Amino acid sequence: MANDFFWSYTDEPHAPRRRQILSQYPQIKELFGPGPFAPLKISVVVLLQLWTATILHDASWLRILIIAYFFGSFLNHNLFLAIHELSHNIAFSTPVYNRWLGIFANLPIGVPMSVTFQKYHLEHHRFQGVDGVDMDVPSCIEARCVTNAVSKTIWIIFQLFFYALRPLFLKPKPPGYWEIINLFVQLALDATVVYSCGWRSFAYLILSTFVGGGMHPMAGHFISEHYVFKPGQETYSYYGPLNLLTWNVGYHNEHHDFPRIPGPSCIR
Length: 268
Hints:
Keywords: Membrane, Oxidoreductase, Transmembrane, Transmembrane helix. With 268 residues, the protein is mostly helical.
């Protein structure tokens, strides 16, 4: 088993691949642009998850945990990937509309992350794998500390915390205007849920986020996308049924080649 990164001294591989593919198949550009059904799909998932939280206001903690793992986690992870889509501005032609929709999609997740995610994720595309710049992949520090089955299991369970805290320690950026809006909208929703339905409803949303990003089938793509299984190959794709729930993020090689194509269009 590899105990270090595979170091490359070339630029990220997808930009030259994109140029080469487009030179041979220029009709691919016809797929660029907004996906027409994104607002509807996001609205359905957001409202379903918030409704589920309301009906669990007096449920037992065991029931809340079970429903969070086997149902709510799928919905919240779907919203993670919806926010990923919106970070590329491919729901609307006007960027600000994508940002507002991202803040809306963020609501059941419980923690404001939509605007900040976009800020760092676009750098992941431009500087894929550059240590200290690309915050979407583990750092050298993590690679040196997480070296056996026990530490890797712990890392996977808490990988959302590593994902969220990594930029704060390695590449902090001052919050901007839109991040403050994201924060206040999210806090308003969280306070409304607690006030109207109680702490159990709010705990359901947080648990759905936590377990859906940890030791869970939906979170497998975090590992499969860019962990090197074959030397020389930096990005990998998955073509299985979970793509139906994850905006086709499994088509990850294709996504990095053509990030302006909406996820649902990757399989055309």
